[in-house]
Amino acid sequence: MITVLDFLLLLFLIVCAVAVARIRDLLSAVVIFAAYSLVMAIIWQMLGSPDVAITEAALGAGVTTFLFIAAISRTRRTE
Amino acid sequence: MDDLVTRSVCRLMVPFVQLYGAYLIFYGHLSPGGGFAGGAVVASSIILYALSFGRETAVLRVAPGISHLLESSGGLWYLLVGLCGIMLGGNFLANKAAGFYLGIPGQLFSSGIIFLLALGIGMKVSSTMVTLYYNLSAEVNDEDGHGI
Description:
The complex is a heterodimer of chains A (79) and B (148). Chain A is mostly helical. Chain A has one domain. Chain A has helices at residues 4-22, 26-46, 50-74. In chain A, helix 2 (26-46) packs antiparallel against helix 3. The N and C termini of chain A lie far apart (41 Å). By secondary structure, chain B is mainly α. Chain B has one domain (4-137). Helix content of chain B is 66%, strand content 0%. At the A-B interface, helix 3 of A face helix 2 and helix 5 of B.
């Protein structure tokens, strides 16, 4: 039984994944990827694994974004 | 990057993020979290500070030498606590078999060496990520004038 909230979160996840792959601006792609990780953390929590959710929120939305921004600041911003 | 809003929000947020990271490390055997997640949260607070105040200010607070030292000593600490199990007559990382104090389940000091191991893991993970950021952001002011 899939609820409306589940459906909305999964739809947002798919839209984010397609947008990250298709967007040309790398900084925007990093921000969308952080939003993807945040929604993924909420989905992990709803699936009943809070441990993975905390790690996903700390690593996916936090440290990975910082490292990508640091890498972009040393290279070009557009593809 | 010299923005008043970013610096003010960062100055407010960093202590609470570090407190939450310490909570995740210390209560890793009772609630979700643990050494890895707590170490990542602590590291992200230090990286947030370095992003908003600049690398030069962050190096004054957490020097790269101290970060390297914590990284190595975290791994050594895990190894030493594990070897205590062998010295006390059990296997490597033996907990109850080596006679450690287990306490009452549900309390903070109730898991023998798991508490100490999570401390070592948190130290190692947080200093590893800070060192990674310092290495990535070194010499960031290239000829284009980009900077963090």
